Amino acid sequence: MSSLDVFGWVGHDLGGAAIKAAVARGGFAVVYRARHRVFGADVALKCLELKPDLDKGERRRFLRLFLGEARAMYRLARLTASVVQPLNFGAERAPKGQWAPWLMLEWLDGCALADELTRRAEEGLGGMPLGDAMALLSPIAEALALAHAEGIAHRDVTPGQVHLIWF
């Protein structure tokens, strides 16, 4: 089992998807790659990692906040292809016993901008040419403008949160 799989979800089903691997762990969540059983497509499952001693009221509050995030993503994904599409939402006890709110998202092939910038630095390529950087950042700026017009503030726009998709 991967050390990223703090919930023990690998090998189990969640939200109609068979979880294959834990792929990333951030400050508040673990992301899993799973295979949706009905759609036959890969999906991402973002599981919130909360303190185990939360009482019922605090769990309800976190679930309400997370649901608000999911609804905001859904609204924005309807307005632009630059926002990842949420597919399902819920909260369940994980195999290791933790209460885990989760959000199912479309799977994006590619990499985080942070990883691409690291690769470029390691290969001595330096920064991106201005035209390439503008082409990359333009859809992000447009998506953020749409979010702001909807009264939504992202609050965590970093190169690790920007996903590059290769065609």
Compact overview of the structure:
By secondary structure, the protein is an alpha+beta fold. Helices cover 32% and strands 28% of the residues.
Strand residues, percent: 25-35%
The succession of helices and strands, N to C, reads EEEEHEEEHHE
CATH topology value of the largest domain = Phosphorylase Kinase, domain 1
Please compute the radius of gyration using only Cα atoms: 17 Å
Identify the CATH architecture of the largest domain.
2-Layer Sandwich
Uncertain spans: none
Largest beta sheet: strand ordering: 1-2-3-4-6-5
Largest sheet: 6 strands, antiparallel
Total number of distinct structural domains: 2
User: Structural class of the helices, strands and pairings?
Assistant: alpha+beta
| Total number of beta strands | 8
Mean pLDDT: 92
Structural account:
- Helices cover 32% and strands 28% of the residues.
- Strands 1-2-3-4-6-5 form a 6-stranded antiparallel β-sheet, with helices on one face. Strands 7-8 form a two-stranded antiparallel ribbon.
- By secondary structure, the protein is of the alpha+beta class.
- It folds into 2 domains: 1-107, Phosphorylase Kinase, domain 1, CATH 3.30.200; 109-167, no CATH class.
- The relative contact order is 0.15.
- The protein has helices spanning 56-79, 113-122, 130-149, and strands at 13-14, 17-25, 29-36, 42-48, 86-93, 99-106, 111-112, 163-164.
- The chain is globular.
- The two termini are 32 Å apart.
- The mean pLDDT is 92.
